[in-house]
Design brief:
This protein has about 160 residues and is an alpha+beta fold. Helix content is about 20%, strand content about 30%. It is built from 4 helices and 7 strands, in the order βααββββββαα. The strands form 2 sheets. It has a 5-stranded antiparallel sheet, covered by helices on one side. It has a two-stranded antiparallel sheet with strand order 2-7. The termini are far apart.
């Protein structure tokens, strides 16, 4: 398994009328964490795209447990619990408050594609080589599957009440 933490300070423009981070901004937070994790591994999106390989989002899921607010310092943890497989890679995310309270969870399933044709292509060998050392044999044995969250773990409505 591989994980990488990225710090993001919530800007005023990222909040809605209720003072919460607007839900659409979480996809951007996920992207920042994913890009920074790849950068730390020595994988460059820019170089990958220059070689004609893109990595669009095939699936996005976000689960809100508690709201983030203006000026909060968030830790966005990006996790690769499973190795990339075939043409896909699954990024999981956990967003924590400064008090290390879990606020948000999510995942993106990304697909490697030929940028000229838009058709899926195998994961570039250079990326595969940089990721494989982080996984055990057991982790590489199973198929790539998105995580499932039981409905019983839904946040209580009180989690979203404004702080006094």
């Amino acid at each position: 398994m591989y994980s990488h933490d990225t710090l993001i300070r919530v800007r005023y423009a990222e909040t809605d009328q209720m003072g919460y981070v607007y839900h659409g901004n979480y996809a951007a937070y996920f992207e920042v964490a994913r890009t920074e994790a790849f950068r730390q591994l020595g994988i460059s999106y820019k170089a990958m795209e220059a070689e004609g390989v893109g990595m669009p989002v095939g699936e996005l899921r976000t689960r809100f447990r508690r709201p983030a607010r203006y000026d909060d310092l968030l830790t966005v943890r990006m996790l690769l619990r499973q190795p990339a497989e075939g043409t896909r890679i699954l990024f999981e995310y956990e967003i924590y408050s400064e008090a290390q309270e879990l606020l948000t969870e999510g995942h993106t399933l990304m697909v490697f594609v030929n940028m000229s044709t838009g058709r899926p292509v195998p994961i570039p060998a250079a990326i595969q080589q940089k990721l494989l050392p982080y996984f055990t044999e057991e982790e590489t044995a199973g198929p790539l599957t998105p995580p499932k969250t039981p409905a019983s773990e839904a946040p209580a409505p009180a989690a979203f009440l404004k702080k006094e």
